[in-house]
Amino acid sequence: MEIESRLLPCGLHVIGKPPSAMEAVATLVNSAALNRPEDGISSLPAILAETLGRDIEDVYMGSEKGILRDVELLRQITEASREPLLHLWSEARTRRDRADREKLRVLFKFLGECLKRVGADNELRSLKQALEGKYIKPGPGRDSIRNPKVLPTGKNIHALDPQAIPTTAALQSAKVVVDRLLERQRLKTEEVRTLSETVRLDARTKLLNPKWYEGILPSGYEGVREIEKRLTNTVG
């Protein structure tokens, strides 16, 4: 329910009905809650936590463990993040003068672009064109919170975009799993059982890195020559 509330902050959408001001703000606030490292954008909760000398991931973990200080801090950060963009945080709750202004500038530039997309209304025109058998511009069908570039709505959506795989989140999760696997193997045997396989696995996760384009689209991979060099020196 919490995930659905974040992804659909205003409930189900009615075709042709543009969002109200508060609905647009709710969408922007949820968009601002996500880190987007591929675009160099820090989330608003992360920026607010930094003003208090905390890492937002530590706050999340502490809150999940029931640590009262972190539960209360997360509540305050969440409330400050939800204020209607004119007063993103209260002087009484955070140290505004310590906020990273460059991170805020990048974030608000991104939110400004999101606002333009949220406010655009192309649905009825596209629906009319579809009924007339005319061409409708295609677009991905992901949710607008994680990927605001699916907006404006009114496109001929497709469920899966193979070029969007892997996502940065999936790549980061895979790296953690592989690092643990390699460490477990090392502690278990004190040496690599099959050196060539481990080098390939290690190289694939640490050197073969997708190059991201516009947030979600990998535009190739880097590190291939280094991988070939390591394999040649180790196996050959």
Key structural traits:
236 residues, mainly alpha, 2 domains, two-stranded parallel ribbon, two-stranded antiparallel ribbon, 53% helix, 7% strand, Magnesium-chelatase subunit ChlH, CobN/Mg_chltase
Order of helices and strands: HHHHHHHEEHHEEH
- Main beta-sheet annotation: 2 strands, parallel
Q: Regions with pLDDT < 50 over 5+ consecutive residues?
A: 86-96, 213-219
Number of strands: 4
Q: How many individual domains?
A: 2
Query: Helical segment tally?
Result: 10
- Write down the Rg: 22 Å
Q: Separation of termini?
A: 54 Å
Query: How would you describe the shape?
Result: globular
**Mean pLDDT over all positions:** 70
Which percent bin holds the helix content?
40-55%
Percent of sequence in beta strands: 5-15%
**Global structural class:** mainly alpha
Which strand order do you get reading across the main beta sheet? Answer: 1-2
Protein name: Magnesium-chelatase subunit ChlH
InterPro entries: CobN/Mg_chltase
Pfam families: CobN-Mg_chel
Domain CobN/magnesium chelatase: 1-190
Written account of the structure:
- The protein is mainly alpha-helical and 236 residues long.
- It folds into two domains: 2-120, no CATH class; 168-235.
- It is built from ten helices and four strands, in the order αααααααββααββα.
- It has helices at 2-7, 21-32, 44-51, 56-64, 68-82, 101-119, 123-131, 168-189, 195-206, 224-235; strands at residues 138-140, 156-158, 209-213, 217-222.
- The protein has a two-stranded parallel sheet with strand order 1-2.
- A hairpin with a 3-residue loop joins strand 3 and strand 4.
- Helix 4 crosses helix 5 (68-82) and helix 9 (195-206) packs antiparallel against helix 10 (224-235).
- The radius of gyration is 22 Å and the shape is globular.
- The model is unreliable at 86-96 and 213-219 (pLDDT under 50).
- This is Magnesium-chelatase subunit ChlH.
- It holds the Pfam family CobN-Mg_chel.
- InterPro entries: CobN/Mg_chltase.
- Residues 1-190 form the CobN/magnesium chelatase domain.
